[in-house]
């Protein structure tokens, strides 16, 4: 009976079809980007997207401009108004002949498998899941049991976030797809940084997507259905989607109008005139990283590609990492940089702001050693929401905010932005993607965002006072010192238990 339950609805489909990113020159949109980039001698154009509204608008407008291909790669997709609006745009793009490939980590599909399978009934939409659970997909209980039976592989996930259109424009960064990433969730807004890349960098990222898409670890979503959705199912699903959005237009009028502003006031052409053109390197983990029996071969890792830059920093290192667990290796690296005279600043979540208190439990034991060597720590406070979310800066919104950004600035010269957190999970277990940009101008913009978040009014600054940790912060224009770490009892317990049971390597 257990075997039958674990079998769920899994079935073997036909052999996977290999496909590649379409050349940028296959569309008029792609050719216009090629012409724009041709004046910059192999450099790519970049623009930061630190504002939730702009981050959503950029994705929606890229879909609207797509003429040949759209490739999406995501760790999480959550249902909501922003997601449904993007899905409608994807369906319309597919209607006009655009090839849509969607690659999702399998954990995404727990509650959305039927909906995704129905979308894949469109002749121009293909959906694959990465590192799929082979057994027990039919219910939440059997999924949990199935993952326990193969925990060594199932805890290794595809954490990449990539949005690629016509192989000529791409978005990388920390945002998944869901209302909480675009300030459209009433209870939580993840403040984040995305990077819009135009020109050659998009082609580089296209190679990254193809490696994952064509990997043996990626399976068509329809392989896991006994009954394949057909055109009638797709038609009915689209009618429900349109009715849902029409209802949201009335019941959530202000939010709907804010998100849908791209339809009447597009900004992509304006942004194309504001690009910073610079040399870059797209970096990503090899998808086979997840197959390692123990720690993966360093040659497969994004961190190995980033190591030359990490080791050559001489003056200033700024880290923004929503989830920060340095481990002994990271501790040695950061303290050795600080001991060598490098100014090292870290911005991460405070206990009260993090959405994963267990990760804070992995970070907290390292604070004293980091501070003793001169590393400066800044823990972002939970930012209360404001009625207006039209602000242009990075922190805050209409909902309470928690840091979700991942970025590194080297010597005010180079910037790395992607999906990578400074923790064991990003280094060893999950796969990641990002872009290293050689531009003082972009580095200064990113640094300014970090400095803004490090301000005492927005962050707690842990310090050592008579050998004990205290937290300096600012309220109503006055600095004051806390001797007890801010955060509720339940958060403290979660942080403590992760430390007590030795979860650090899994965080």
Quick structural summary:
The protein has 507 residues and is α+β, with helices and mostly antiparallel strands. Helices cover 36% and strands 22% of the residues.
Kindly describe this structure.
The protein has 2 domains: 2-10 and 25-272, Endonuclease, Chain A (2-Layer Sandwich); 285-506, Endonuclease Chain A (Endonuclease, Chain A). The chain is 36% helix and 22% strand. The protein has 18 helices and 20 strands. The strands form 2 sheets. The chain has an 18-stranded mixed beta sheet, with helices on both faces. A two-stranded parallel ribbon has the order 7-14. A hairpin with a 3-residue loop joins strand 15 and strand 16. The longest helix is centred in the middle third of the chain and has 21 residues, at 231-251. The radius of gyration is 23 Å and the shape is globular. The relative contact order is 0.14.
């Amino acid at each position: 009976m257990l075997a039958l339950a674990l079998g769920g609805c899994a079935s073997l489909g036909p052999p996977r079809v290999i496909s590649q990113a379409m050349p940028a020159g296959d569309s008029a949109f792609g050719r216009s980007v090629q012409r724009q980039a041709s004046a910059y001698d192999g450099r790519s154009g970049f623009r930061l997207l630190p504002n939730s509204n702009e981050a959503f608008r950029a994705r929606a407008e890229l879909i609207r401009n797509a003429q040949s291909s759209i490739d999406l790669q995501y760790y999480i997709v959550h249902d909501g108004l922003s997601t449904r609006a993007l899905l409608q745009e994807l369906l319309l793009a597919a209607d006009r002949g655009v090839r849509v490939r969607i690659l999702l980590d399998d954990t995404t599909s727990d509650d959305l498998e039927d909906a995704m399978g129905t979308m894949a009934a469109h002749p121009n939409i293909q959906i694959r899941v990465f590192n799929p659970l082979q057994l027990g997909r039919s219910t939440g209980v059997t999924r949990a049991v199935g993952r326990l039976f193969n925990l060594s592989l199932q805890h290794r996930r595809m954490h990449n976030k990539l949005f690629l259109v016509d192989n000529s424009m791409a978005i990388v960064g920390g945002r998944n797809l869901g209302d909480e990433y675009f300030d459209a969730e009433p209870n939580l807004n993840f403040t984040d940084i995305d990077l819009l890349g135009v020109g050659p960098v998009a082609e580089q990222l296209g190679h990254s997507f193809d490696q994952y898409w064509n990997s043996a670890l990626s399976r068509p979503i329809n392989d896991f259905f006994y009954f394949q959705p057909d055109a009638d199912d797709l038609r009915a699903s689209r009618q429900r989607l349109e009715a849902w959005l029409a209802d949201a237009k009335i019941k959530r009028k202000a939010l709907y109008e804010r998100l849908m502003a791209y339809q009447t006031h597009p900004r992509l052409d304006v942004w194309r005139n504001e690009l910073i053109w610079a040399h870059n390197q797209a970096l990503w983990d090899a998808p086979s990283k997840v197959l390692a029996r123990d720690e993966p071969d360093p040659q497969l890792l994004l961190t190995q590609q980033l190591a030359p830059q990490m080791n050559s920093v001489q003056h200033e290192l700024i880290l923004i990492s929503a989830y920060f667990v340095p481990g002994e290796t990271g501790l040695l690296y950061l303290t050795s940089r600080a001991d060598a005279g490098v100014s090292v600043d870290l911005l991460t979540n405070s206990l009260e702001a993090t959405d994963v208190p267990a990760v804070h439990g992995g970070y907290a034991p390292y604070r004293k050693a980091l501070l003793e060597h001169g590393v400066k720590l800044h823990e972002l406070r939970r930012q209360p929401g404001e009625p207006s979310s039209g602000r242009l800066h990075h922190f805050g919104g209409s909902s309470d905010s928690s840091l979700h950004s991942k970025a590194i600035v080297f010597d005010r010269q180079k910037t790395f932005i992607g999906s990578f957190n400074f923790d064991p999970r990003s280094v060893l277990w999950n796969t990641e993607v990002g872009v290293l940009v050689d531009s003082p101008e972009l580095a200064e913009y990113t640094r300014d965002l970090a400095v803004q978040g490090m301000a005492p009014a927005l962050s707690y600054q842990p310090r050592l006072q008579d050998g004990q940790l205290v937290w300096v912060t600012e309220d109503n224009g006055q600095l004051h010192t806390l001797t007890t770490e801010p955060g509720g009892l339940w958060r403290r317990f979660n942080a403590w238990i992760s430390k007590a049971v030795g979860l650090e390597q899994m965080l």
